[in-house]
Write a structure and sequence with these properties.
By secondary structure, the protein is of the alpha+beta class. The longest helix is centred in the first third of the chain and has 23 residues.
Length: about 220
């Protein structure tokens, strides 16, 4: 009996792994996107919608996350759960925001997207890609959308000085409601929350707060086991 159970478990894991591999087939590595995105202006954006900007980005750096987002958006759905080891997509068209993650443990990559309307008639388009497991990676691609020439121009220095280092990790909270950008920092100084207020053209630093993380009555340190 135990032998049959073991065989069944191996078959199940093989099937789940295949599903995970199929979903990521054709996806660009996040390591590649992080390295290359800021060096290339993207052209041919169909219009000023979130979907059109995602389509333009996906033509250059295709990912399973953008594909999942666009599939849900085209269906007109606000929330789509596709079952175990399949994408979960949250879409908020009113606020120009979308989030994609995986429902199972095999793929830890995720994506969050939003845009802000700028006072000059342009839009600031942001894609946050992350993967909490090795190789851990978190970064945001910021673009200026110009409606006159229908381009997405990289703005890599819009949030100056906030980069992941060996000792400090940064996580980004793109706004679904409101316009504030929140960056959570975990490092030698503990958990810090940096708030950036929207000034009409970009998020501008406003304040830093120390956050006390408590789990089961004790201070929580993600580096401790």
């Amino acid at each position: 009996m135990k032998k049959h159970v073991l065989i069944a478990l191996i078959a199940l894991m093989s099937c789940m792994t295949a599903v995970g591999q199929d979903i990521r087939k054709g996806s660009t590595s996040l390591v590649v996107i992080e390295k290359e995105w800021e060096h290339e202006t993207l052209s041919g954006v169909e219009n000023n919608t979130l979907g059109a900007m995602l389509d333009c980005f996906d033509k250059r750096w295709p990912t399973w996350m953008v594909k999942a987002a666009r599939k849900t958006m085209k269906k007109g759905l606000r929330l789509e759960r596709n079952g175990d080891s399949q994408p979960v997509v949250h879409y908020d068209p009113k606020n120009g925001w979308v989030e994609v993650a995986m429902s199972g443990p095999l793929i830890a990559e995720f994506m969050k997207v939003c845009y802000w309307k700028r006072t000059n008639g342009h839009r600031l388009f942001a894609l946050y890609f992350g993967n909490p497991v090795e190789p851990s990676i978190h970064f945001v691609c910021f673009y200026d959308y110009n409606p006159q020439n229908r381009t997405l121009t990289p703005e890599p220095q819009i949030i100056d000085g906030y980069r992941t280092t060996e000792d400090t990790k940064f996580f980004y909270d793109l706004p679904q409601e409101g316009k504030d950008l929140i960056i959570s920092e975990f490092g030698p100084k503990g958990h810090l929350r940096h708030t950036f207020k929207w000034d009409g053209m970009k998020p501008v630093f406003s304040k830093t707060e120390v956050v006390e993380d408590i789990a089961d009555g004790d201070h929580y340190d993600e580096d401790e086991e």
